[in-house]
Design goal:
Jelly Rolls, 3 helices, globular, 5-stranded antiparallel β-sheet, Elongation Factor Tu (Ef-tu), domain 3, 8-stranded antiparallel β-sheet, 304 residues, mainly beta
């Protein structure tokens, strides 16, 4: 008989609860049977058909929000009555705040960010105080419908002074073992004086979405010159809710980008691959960091 998975919730109230597995019920709450809507990222095929077409034509795939529905059993104990345990659970999930559900199995630990879609449902047969037990059901939503593992990071630091007009060349390793595209994140460091200028990869990885898979196979982005100590964050994801490039010093850095944007995610099943970076106009010791998020459609498995 196998060992159970460890399922925990980092609640919207800041409290961590063990819902299933070793230590379950540490806060008087245990995951009930038959949770639904967690197993796979919801997808649906998009087909179109014209007036005289025989059949239809595949035009892509739509990824929708995950909508988990699950129940918990709430128990009273000598140190905490059922009413107190239930009251504490009522703050674990919220409509307007994130909570994080963690699943740890044999070979992975992944997280799903969820919120309540509606109020918690409780329909007791008898007064729960009599048996010190009650079952509460939650209908939730995961707007980002992926289970994320800890991101893969790499960094590179220039060992030479390039303020004299020379260029330092280096590389970082990116990867994507998941079955879905992933969009990298960059953190760029600037020198104490203005002039640091980075060149970053934005390879197509064979992606045909812009009909330039071949032309953009080696595409790079020449970043604008950075201000002194302007350490820039870049989130390349086209679905991000924030601007692609964010500066702590210049709220209009997008104007300095002159219309240039990052266009491509890393393709699914990409093994660890070195990609080139370069910097000029910076003293030795200036560097960058790249982050590869790992979005999985299930809480376990899918490695190939």
């Amino acid at each position: 008989m196998g060992k159970p998975a460890l399922i925990t919730l980092d609640g919207a109230d800041g409290i961590r609860r063990i819902l299933s597995g070793p230590g379950m019920g540490d806060r008087g709450v245990e995951l009930a049977t038959s949770p639904a809507g967690f197993y796979n990222t919801p997808t649906e095929a998009i087909y179109t058909e014209h007036a005289f077409e025989r059949g239809s034509t595949y035009n892509g795939m739509r990824i929708t929000s995950m909508q988990p529905v699950f129940s918990v059993n709430i128990f009273g104990s000598p140190g905490q009555s059922w009413e107190e345990a239930d009251d504490e659970w009522s703050t674990a999930l919220a409509i307007n705040q994130d909570a994080t559900l963690w699943y740890e199995g044999d070979s992975s630990r992944r997280r799903l960010t969820i919120r309540l879609m509606q109020e918690m449902q409780f329909t007791p047969v008898n007064d729960p105080r009599l048996g010190q037990y009650g079952k509460v059901t939650m209908t939730c939503i995961a707007p980002d419908p992926f289970w994320y593992e800890t991101s893969e990071f790499d960094k590179w630091t220039s060992e030479i002074d390039t303020t004299n007009g020379t260029t330092a060349y280096g590389s970082v390793t990116v990867q994507n073992p998941t079955p879905y595209p992933t969009w990298v994140k960059w953190r760029l460091q600037a020198g104490p004086n203005p002039g640091t200028k980075w060149t970053l990869p934005d390879f197509s990885w064979g992606n045909k979405i812009h009909r330039r898979a071949v032309e953009d196979a080696d595409r790079v982005i020449h970043m604008p010159e950075l201000l002194g100590n302007e350490h820039v964050d870049i989130e390349t994801d086209e679905n991000s809710k924030r601007p692609q490039v964010v500066s702590p010093l210049d709220t209009q850095i997008y104007m300095r980008m002159e219309g240039k944007t990052f266009m491509y995610p890393i393709a699914p099943r990409t093994p660890p691959t070195e990609v080139p970076v370069a910097v000029t106009g910076a003293p030795a010791g200036v560097g960058l960091r790249v982050e590869c998020p790992l979005p999985w459609p299930k809480p376990w498995g899918m490695r190939r």
